[in-house]
Specification:
single chain, alpha+beta, six-stranded antiparallel sheet, six-stranded mixed sheet, 22 strands, 49% helix
Length: 812
């Protein structure tokens, strides 16, 4: 009620008028800043026309004035734009402070008769005009207006300060600007003798600044009085408009008479008009509060009238039966639901007692006397089943006193709520609880229900078989008591972490969890945990199962798997072989099988001595995983080794391997073969769809060896068109390092493989910078590269092979 009364006292705004006022305020601030910016640009560029800021705007605007007007316009625009951030607030306040500082220091120069050095601070101005007394100095009226404008903008940017303070300052700035414009309009140069001299663009900018300051917060202060809805605010807006227009027209009329020779005194007329504007504006704002008080009084009266209507409407629309009686039991008001349930109209019961119009049992139930004298002090509530004209219903009746401001009861209000459905629902809840208990007891696992603190609130009969405790004995104890003492801290931490989840989902935990039997025996358990959020707290369901037999079976399977893994590793090692250690060619390698396979895969490499100065290097990758890929890999390794020992060029070796793979069913293989000639300091290579070879010369960065990339082995057989394999020869200086690898090292889901190859290249370059190519260095480098590109080798799902070759540096 109090909130509604306050809303009635606070007259609303017309949003369209507020929007228009804000738009005018922002536009005026932008124009003010624009005039200042044009004048300042004239001083910066030395263009006299721009110094006037307007076409024919002479005399020129002072530099300090231009800076201050630009700052004021910017500050007022930010203040009028709406909600301000911390950054915009700082900018607005800084700009306002700058304008106020310029105006204040200039006024101080006039008061003290000294020069503070600010007049010629920005630009040199040798002109001395009337009322300034010093070159480049701002006129006294302009200095005062700039000080007020800066203060107004600063106050408007501080939301904690009342808006009217800044608005009054804005009106003062508006008045000073209009004083100059009126003097110009009425051809009264004598205005300069009163310190009102200012350039025309300055006067116009001050008028705009005053308007912007007044409309920056149009829903507050003096502007808010003009923007309100109702009668007085539109009247005030009209008075202000009249105040600004009529005196100007009257002044022109007076001057027309003077020019006609009827009378003289231009100065008197100009001052008279300006005084009228000021007085009329004060009259408008003095009148507006009076009108607002009239509107508020009218609003309060309407609010009081509406209360009875709202109360009756509220009673009629509430689903409960509501009635109000005096202390003697006579009905003062009833709602429409009362009429429906009793089949009596409002007129039939108004002013009568319940026993006069209602059946005896119903009248007794609704009588405040039946509740005793307590009803005069506090509310009384009871629930029972009544036989109403519409049939038997379960009802909840509440009687409470209505008191006056002195807390003296003067009436009794009754609220009768039909709870028939709720009572039926409660009975259904009881039946549901019984069904839930039967379902809980039928669960095959020991089931515990705990509160959010882990205290057991319910348990089924299976807990006695599993833990040796009766279900009733566990109620009220903590679930951690069913865990071995040494493991309770971990189990409690797991439970707390699960409950801290924002939306805990059902989960099954069986890793390193143990239960404790009453006789002290520990046993591994699997716990299924889920939660149910009720109205007060989270309830946790825990189904506990003894998994001793499962653990034994898992241990047996793990032993068999380890045995198979050793066999697979032995097979892979035998297929791969051990690369020869050549005195003239250092090497290091790494092989990682996919975690999805028992230690075997399709990757292979081989180092094949050809003669005293030449060495063949082959690396390949059979598409697929597991034993099948390993079997194909073993055949290809043997075939490539045999072909290489014949000394054939790399391209012919690839052609032979392609024919070999074509004889295999549905196989694709990527491969690259290199022949390193250490006497000629060059390498010849041929690639069949394999990853690019990376080389790091001793005197430069690591880079990919340029080579044509052919199709994978087996593609020619599938496509039916033979694509020739091309080889290339590249220089390879002594002391160089060569890196060969399979795609498992650089291929990741969601990443660009080219980017990963660049990462491998940069990492290799960084590790081997200024490092020798001995076996130990290469081995450490291989370990670093695998660790950098595959951070978690335990979960990597592809075969990885890396081979590093180091050519000895020339003897010094």
């Amino acid at each position: 009620m109090e909130r509604r009364r306050q809303e009635a006292e606070s007259l609303p705004f017309h949003e369209c008028i507020l929007a228009a006022a804000r738009a005018v305020g922002r536009g005026a601030s932008v124009l003010c800043a624009l005039l200042g910016a044009v004048g300042l640009s004239g001083w910066i560029s030395g263009i006299a026309v721009l110094k006037g800021a307007l076409p024919g705007g002479t005399p020129a605007m002072r530099p300090n004035t231009a800076v201050a007007l630009l700052a004021v316009g910017l500050s007022l625009f930010l203040a009028a734009r709406g909600p301000m951030t911390r950054q915009t607030t700082a900018v607005a306040r800084g700009a306002a402070g700058l304008a106020a500082l310029i105006g204040g220091l200039t006024l101080l120069e006039y008061v003290t008769g000294t020069g503070l050095g600010i007049d010629q601070l920005l630009f040199r101005d040798d002109s001395v005009r009337l009322m300034t007394g010093a070159p480049g100095r701002v006129a006294p009226s302009v200095a005062a207006a700039l000080t007020l404008a800066g203060a107004a903008s600063l106050g408007l940017s501080m939301r904690r300060l009342p808006a009217w303070a800044g608005q009054i300052s804005g009106l003062s700035v508006l008045g000073l600007g209009l004083l100059r414009l009126y003097g110009l309009a009425y051809h009264a140069p004598e205005m300069e003798r009163f310190g009102a001299y200012m350039a025309l663009p300055t006067a116009l900018a001050l008028v705009l600044a005053g308007i912007a300051a007044f409309l920056a917060r149009p829903d507050e202060g003096l502007a808010g009085l003009l923007m309100k809805a109702g009668i007085m605010s539109p009247l005030g807006r009209r008075l202000v408009a009249t105040n600004l227009i009529v005196p100007l027209l009257l002044g022109w009329a007076v001057l027309a008479g003077q020019d006609a020779g009827l009378y003289g005194g231009r100065l008197g007329t100009a001052l008279l008009v300006w005084g009228h504007v000021t007085v009329f504006t004060v009259v408008v704002f003095v009148t507006l509060p009076v009108g607002r008080r009239v509107e508020l009084a009218h609003a309060r009266a309407e609010w009081q009238v509406r209360q009875n209507e709202l109360l009756q409407a509220f009673m009629d629309h509430t689903p409960a039966t509501v009635f109000i009686t005096d202390l003697d039991g006579r009905f003062l008001a009833v709602n429409s639901r009362f009429e429906e349930n009793t089949c009596l109209s409002y007129e039939q019961v108004l002013g009568r007692r319940a026993e006069d119009v209602l059946p005896v049992d119903l009248a007794r139930h609704m009588s405040s006397d039946d509740f005793g004298t307590r009803v005069r002090d506090t509310a009384v509530q009871r629930e029972e089943r009544l036989l109403l004209p519409i049939g038997p219903r379960d009802v909840l009746t509440t009687l409470f006193p209505l008191t006056d401001p002195t807390d003296t009861p003067y009436a009794v209000c009754g609220v009768v709520i039909d709870v028939t459905e709720r009572v039926a629902a409660q009975r259904e809840v009881q039946r549901s609880h019984q069904r839930f208990r039967a379902l809980l007891e039928s669960a095959p696992d020991a089931t515990l229900i705990t509160d959010g603190d882990g205290s057991i609130v319910m348990a089924n009969a299976q807990v006695q078989r599993l833990f040796g405790h009766r279900p009733d004995d566990l109620v009220g104890t903590n679930v951690a008591d069913l865990v071995p003492g040494a493991r309770r801290r971990r189990h409690s931490a797991l439970l707390s972490a699960y409950l801290r989840r924002r939306d805990p989902q059902p989960i099954v935990l069986d890793r390193d969890l143990y239960g404790l039997h009453r006789d002290g025996v520990e046993f591994p358990v699997e716990v299924s945990v889920s939660t149910l959020q009720d109205e007060q707290e989270a309830v946790m369901f825990m189904a506990v199962r003894d998994i001793t037999e499962r653990r034994q079976s898992e241990a047996e399977r793990a032993g068999r798997y380890e045995q198979q893994r050793r066999i697979a590793y032995t097979l892979q090692h035998s297929l791969m072989g051990e690369p020869p250690r050549l005195p003239h060619l250092s090497s290091a390698h790494r092989y990682l099988a996919s975690v999805q396979d028992p230690g075997v895969g399709g990757d292979w490499f081989d180092i094949i001595p050809l003669d005293a100065h030449r060495t063949g290097i082959v690396i390949g990758d059979v598409m697929g995983r597991g034993l099948e890929a390993a079997a194909v890999m073993g055949q290809l390794r043997a075939a490539s080794h045999a072909l290489a020992r014949t000394g054939i060029p790399p391209s012919r070796l690839m052609t032979g391997l392609d024919a070999f793979v074509g004889d295999l069913a549905d196989q694709l293989v990527t491969c690259v073969y290199l022949v390193i000639d250490q006497e000629a300091h060059e390498v010849t290579l041929c690639s069949a769809g394999h990853m690019p070879v990376i080389a790091r010369p001793p005197d430069g960065p690591a880079h990919r060896l340029p080579a044509p990339v052919g199709v994978p082995l087996g593609v020619n057989e599938l496509s039916g068109a033979a694509v020739p394999f091309e080889e290339t020869t590249q220089p390879l200086l002594p002391g160089s390092t060569v890196a060969l690898y399979t795609d498992g090292l650089v291929e990741r889901p969601g990443t660009d493989i080219e980017v990963q190859i660049d990462v491998l290249t940069r990492t290799l370059d960084g590790v081997l910078k200024d490092a020798p190519t001995d076996p130990d260095t290469l081995d450490a480098t291989a370990a670093h590269l695998v660790g950098s590109l595959i951070p978690d080798t335990a979960t990597h799902d592809d075969d990885v092979t890396l081979l590093l070759l180091g050519l000895p540096a020339p003897q010094q």
